[in-house]
Design a protein that fits this description.
three-stranded antiparallel sheet; elongated; 8 strands; five-stranded mixed sheet; Immunoglobulin-like; mainly beta
Length: 138
């Protein structure tokens, strides 16, 4: 009997189909902070990832394929306070709009989350090709 492997903690890409359009909720803990990717604009490529970031409080832009992406940050809950600052906790999730423009070509792309010129992290999306059957007249 082969030994049981521990669960892999790697974050898997978000799966979408070609020409899908939807809002996706992403947690800050799911972001990859490795090397910069092609999704990051030329202005941010020279910058190192923002160190010590734990939430989306410094977020200024979201990009995919070197183009801006619409996003919504949730309003902080005034009932949930940070123990240190006694202020509402900053957002740890974000909703990102993945439009048909982004999903028109199959493959893998990265969504970059930027705080000024610093990269907070990226999240991968895999777009599966849609098979179109020939349903026309014969």
């Amino acid at each position: 009997m082969p030994p049981v492997k521990a669960k892999d903690d790697k974050t898997v890409p978000i799966e979408l189909k070609q020409y899908d359009s939807q809002w996706i909720e992403i947690k800050f803990s799911e972001l990859t902070t490795g090397a910069t990717t092609a999704a990051v604009s030329a202005a941010a490529i020279d910058s190192a990832p923002a160190k010590g970031a734990k939430d989306f409080s410094g977020l200024t832009a979201v990009e995919a394929n070197s183009a801006p992406v619409n996003y919504i940050l949730p309003e902080p809950d005034p009932k949930v306070l940070d123990e240190k600052t006694k202020k509402p906790k900053p957002p740890t999730t974000i909703k990102v709009e993945i439009s048909r423009v982004l999903t028109s070509k199959p493959g893998t792309m990265d969504i970059a989350f930027l705080a000024g010129k610093k990269l907070l992290g990226t999240r991968q999306i895999h777009i599966a090709q849609t098979e179109w059957g020939n349903t026309g007249d014969k």
